[in-house]
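[job 4471] stage=fold_predict status=RUNNING
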Amino acid sequence: NSKVSFIFVPFVKNLMAATIYERVILGHYGRVKDYLDNGGDPNAPDNRGQTLLLLAAMNNQPDICGLLVDYKANLNLAAPRGFTPVITAAYFGDLECVRVLLSRGANPKMTEKERNHVKCAIKWNHEGSDKCLELMDRYELRNKKAKKTPMEINEK
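[job 4471] inference complete, writing structure tokens
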């Protein structure tokens, strides 16, 4: 991926000592899978209350988003600031993460606060945020027409 991560990761001298959070941010798919295979909690928050899925969504890690969802990460669990992983991915303009999360059942419906958050990103020229907002709006409209949840739509 050519996108640059928006989250600063301190230099880790010994990768064996890297935390699961750093591994998610850096995209170490195999290590994250090992963590989950060994009973690691896919919803474990870091010291700031951010889950692994939220960190993956913030850092352009769509494959890890999918992996975490496969291991039952909560798609709609909001961060301390109130934003879900799909809103966070849209804010950072990560269309691929937004696609993965919506296709797995993330709620595309946004509150006015969430919509304004993504609109601010567009105003600040976060590349891709506009396309993410359009995609989420299409998912929400499709759900309203079908009167089904995103999960029910994806099961067809």
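[job 4471] summary: The radius of gyration is 15 Å.
[job 4471] exit 0
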